[in-house]
Amino acid sequence: MPASYLPGGKLFKIIRYQICRHMFASCGKNVNVEYMAAFHSGKQIIIGDNSGIGVRANLSGRITIGNDVMMGKDVSIMTQNHNFFRTDIPMNKQRFQPEEPVTIEDDVWICDRVTILAGVQVGRGSILAAAAVVTKNVSEYAIVGGNPAKVIKFRK
Q1: What is the DSSP letter of 89?
Q2: CA 148/CA 4 separation, integer angstroms
Q3: How far is CA 28 from each of CA 3, 84, 136, 150, rounded to the nearest angstrom?
Q4: Looking at residue 1, what is its pLDDT?
Q5: Fewer CB within a 10 Å sphere, N or C end of the chain?
Q6: Active site includes 40?
Q7: How many other C-beta atoms lie within 10 A of the C-beta of residue 6?
Q8: Cα separations (Å) of 5 from 11, 12, 23, 35, 57?
Q9: pLDDT, tens digit, for every residue of 3-48?
Q10: In terms of Cα–Cα distance, which of 95, 110, 25 is closest to 63?
Q11: Biggest alpha carbon–alpha carbon distance for the chain
């Protein structure tokens, strides 16, 4: 189904919403899920009112997305990582570390190609700049960017 911003996209936005509101643990009103978004554990996702999941987004695990969250294209949010601590066993045979949920608070802008790693909490009103790799919690109203993401400035 085409993106919501293309001709006829409003109809497909409604269809995707109707499907996803049954797939997610909780789905607010006026949620926009763009085309080719992938959910590896939909029943663990909570999304608030007026929020969106971007084109080709990849969400995996227990993720809470607040109200009024904007998400760009190609965003990845992961709540698990591979074990790699032992050197006597190949990494692909060490299974996974315990899941660490991700929380994105209200009024957050996640720009294109952002990666958010396990256990991160993104504070209210913050902006995650394009291609940022967010490995640590983000303070309220912070603008972060880079790899790893660092505070550039604050909105207030």
Answers
A1: S
A2: 31
A3: 20, 38, 27, 31
A4: 58
A5: C
A6: no
A7: 11
A8: 11, 10, 23, 11, 16
A9: 677 667 788 888 888 888 889 999 999 999 998 999 887 689 999 9
A10: 25
A11: 55
* Residue 47, strand partner residues: 27, 65
In 3D space, the residue among 15, 11, 122, 142 whose CA is nearest the CA of residue 75 turns out to be 122
Q: Write down the catalytic residue from 40, 82, 95, 155.
A: 82
Q: How far is CA 104 from CA 6, 25, 68, 80, in A?
A: 27, 15, 10, 16
Catalogue all structural domains in the chain, each as residue range(s) with its CATH number.
Answer: 9-154 (2.160.10.10)
Tokens at 93, concatenated: 């045979």
Per-block mean pLDDT, blocks of 10 residues, the chain (156 long): 69 85 93 90 90 96 98 97 94 94 98 98 98 98 98 95
